[in-house]
């Protein structure tokens, strides 16, 4: 029997009435608004005033990490609290606020979460309980952690990783050899999570993740990288020379990893879909960091445009300037909506059928680069100097087109997802 339009509408409206919880809303919960205000206060009072100094020093801002740890903003309880909001927006909202304060310091505080995400995603419950708290240290003596995947010849092409892990059955130890590149907190971390190949023939499917416990012999910092932006965040090579770790440091446990490798050797369906879902779910948080930078630059430019007078009027009275600001605001809000959508999808278990996580990171990164460049333009000569913060924001923003998957790689992921074609 076919339904009339009226019946369908009545049914749909009726359903909505029965399930008010399913009503669409972008309203943040009171808890989340409180957290946002708290992080914003820290970003405004502690992070922002210190931003220029730590950018120039190009050093990890330990005193600020300590402050964050003291108030519970840095630490596994803090991270768990941000994660707990059931909308999925806890991490994006807090990251946006922190990076609005400053991206270099923000990354010094949030860089640890890369390693934590790997332990959380791949570790057993025992491994999580043992290692996640150690990644952060204590409130009195905070520590940082590093996630080491990239290598000099394996950036976008993760399957090219050459670092190897060989199992020493007699000692129940893994022996890791290789060189990691551009690791955030590399060498200064208490805990390193290292991606290594246990079977080179299997390419990326032969990879596994290992914990390198604090003080392990053979794990050394290589060259510290001098960077264009994000300079308060430490980035360095990590050398692994006959670095021996206990068998229990293989994330997920040997049995599970052996099973996965056996499946791969038999050509069975890979876990790449699961891995893809994990990446898609973490990308909105990175996108939110870029939005924080963009928003900071936009707000600065807006205030400046109202103050700065040329030709006897505030420069914002010129459409060229005002429209630029209108476009900046529109782009930031559009990017945030993509970030929030992807974060909500990840949390509520929706499949990323069109790579919505990649879309959010791609858009947010490009918006941050574009908005910060526009902010320099609105500030004119002042914008180009280190006396004003927007040039630093522009330098910081550029990395969001590069790390956690370059803009081109995000487009590759999206185009493959929407088309089903193995686009090269
Ligand atoms: C500040 C900073 C922090 C970092 N932190 C970490 C970290 O903590 N841990 C970690 O493991 N890594 C980290 N990285 C490394 C980062 O993830 C890589 O730089 C990134 O993945 C890109 O790899 P690549 O630099 O080798 O570029 P390449 O892969 O060499 O790419 C160069 C260019 O070629 C393009 N390209 C490559 N392949 C394709 C393709 N198939 N189609 C189209 N275009 C393509 C890229 O998009 C890019 O524009 C960090 C890097 C920086 C700069």
Describe the structure.
The chain has 424 residues and is of the alpha+beta class. The chain is built from 14 helices and nine strands. It has helices at residues 5-18, 30-57, 62-70, 76-84, 90-101, 103-110, 112-122, 125-136, 254-265, 272-307, 319-348, 356-383, 390-397, 407-419, and strands at residues 145-148, 164-168, 173-184, 191-197, 207-212, 219-224, 235-246, 309-310, 313-314. The strands form three sheets. A four-stranded antiparallel β-sheet has the order 2-3-7-6, with no helix packed on it. Strands 1-4-5 form a three-stranded mixed β-sheet. Strands 8-9 form a two-stranded antiparallel sheet. α10 (272-307) packs parallel to α12 and α12 (356-383) runs antiparallel to α14. It is globular and about 80 Å long. The model is unreliable at 1-20 (pLDDT under 50). It binds flavin-adenine dinucleotide. Residues 114, 147-150, 155-156, 182-184, 227, 230, 235, 399, 402-403, 406, 408-409, 412 line the site of flavin-adenine dinucleotide (FAD).
